[in-house]
Amino acid sequence: MTLKIVLTVLLLLFGSGCTVVGVGAVAAIGSTYYVTGEIRSSCPYPVSIRHLYEVTLYTFQEEGIRLLSVTNSTKDADITGESEAGKKIKVHIYYNSEGQATLGMRIGAIGDEKQSRLLLKKMEKYI
Fold first, then answer.
1. Contacts by residues 92-95 (CB-CB < 8 Å, ≥ 24 positions apart)
2. Which CATH number is 30-124's, of 3.30.365.10, 3.40.50.2300, 3.30.70.1050, 3.30.310.240?
3. I want to staple 96 with a disulfide (CB 3.0 to 4.6 A). Which of 43, 44, 51, 64 is the partner?
4. Strand pairing of 66-72 and 32-35?
5. Which of 25, 86, 94 is nearest to 53 (CA)?
């Protein structure tokens, strides 16, 4: 019985989507939260800002999203586009540490959670 309690406590402590798994230190992909119209990855992706930047541009191209503006530096990047339906899409990539970055995305003026999650899922295929 105490073993079950200990295992339950360990699972609660270490069972978040951000837990690092195995020898390869692969971070979980797919952990997100949606607040005030923006979807954000809750765990850093195990890639550089540059890689997320390129993934975003590629996904925009694949999805027929017209690129409106791009700004980037070594610490962050902003990519803005427009969908075929005329909705503005803004992606912000955040620097976490060397080789780790997170991103936030808003679709439309007040945000569209369903569309944001769909687009993020498509982007995660290329990460």
1. 93/49, 93/52, 93/53, 93/56, 95/49
2. 3.30.310.240
3. 44
4. unpaired
5. 94
| Residue 42 identity | S
DSSP, res 81: E
What strands lie across the sheet with 100-107, from one edge to the other?
32-35, 38-41, 100-107, 88-97, 76-82, 66-72
Mapped to the 3 state alphabet, what secondary structure does 89-104 carry?
EEEEEEEEECCEEEEE
